[in-house]
Amino acid sequence: MLRPDELTAIVNVGDDLELHGLHISPDLDTITYTVAGAIDPERGWGLAGETWHAMEALGRYPRARAWFNLGDRDLATHLYRTARRAEGATPTQVAAEIGAAWDVGINLLPMTDGRFRTMLVLADGGETISFQDYFVRLQHGVAIEAIRFEQDGCELTPAARSAIERSSVVVIAPSNPLVSIGPIRALAGVDELLSGRRDSVIAVSPIVGGHALKGPADRMMTELGIESTVAGVARLYAPIASTLVIDTVDADLASDVEAAGMRCVITPTVMSSPDASRSLALACLAAGR
Tens digits of per-residue pLDDT, 115-151? Predict the structure, then answer.
């Protein structure tokens, strides 16, 4: 196994938002808390053993956007990030500081230091809303007709670019390919970087048995005309990755993955325990070497 400091995670920031005057980076914080062993295991976000007194008090005010919950201890992370950003620190610098404070060991890199926002166009009426409005306020219970990325000259950070260029293996995690991986790919030059080293880029399917294990990836794919199967995932990733890792329940679709132009590796992909997660990681590393 690799040492933690040999691992780098390039993280989507399209979900970031400014709320209550605070800079909030949900994906970075979720990874930080998870690797630190502090995540709430039931919700899959926020801190275990959290309390919610601040949010309860905020709910008293009619114009407060209290639909986006921030736990009392989690607020400290957002207060720190906001203060450091006001002092001129970049998101990359702040992510490193927060990761070090939580002793995560791995290198956590936001994909860009610019302002990048993922927006969803609703199928009913064509209204465009932010990702968090869709995901949290509306509980991803509405259909979409398009995904748009708002970016003001955003670029892949030099640290993230170096990580892609120098890593022996690049693993695309089993996150939503449209709104978690898609924003990273939307940055100029990212697909070119990945396709240039395609043989050592390994993707893990987030779709198992035709469904997403968590979140709306399967419904979003269907709504946008993409087949919600490992074959549909393969067609999304074939230009940038040579191999797709799929779960054993989808073994009968291996030929469809190969027809899309990807090598197929079949192994348990549901990370139901630390041992299962470790086995999947080892399979991904082996596939890329």
Answer: 999 999 999 989 999 999 999 999 999 999 999 999 9
Pick the CATH number of 4-110 from 2.30.30.240, 1.10.8.240, 2.40.30.30, 3.40.50.10750: 1.10.8.240
The structure tokens 């709306």 sit at: 216
Angle among Cα 140, 190, 115 to the nearest 5 degrees reads 55
Torsion angle of the four alpha carbons 9, 187, 202, 265, in this order, in degrees rounded to the nearest 10: 120
Dist. CA 109–CA 187, nearest whole Å: 15
d(CA 248, CA 133) in angstroms, rounded, equals 35
Where in the chain do CATH 3.40.50.10680 domains reside?
A: 168-287
The pTM of the full predicted model, rounded to 2 decimals, is 0.95
The Cα 171–Cα 284 span in angstroms is 7
42-63 pLDDT per residue, tens: 898 999 999 999 999 999 998 8
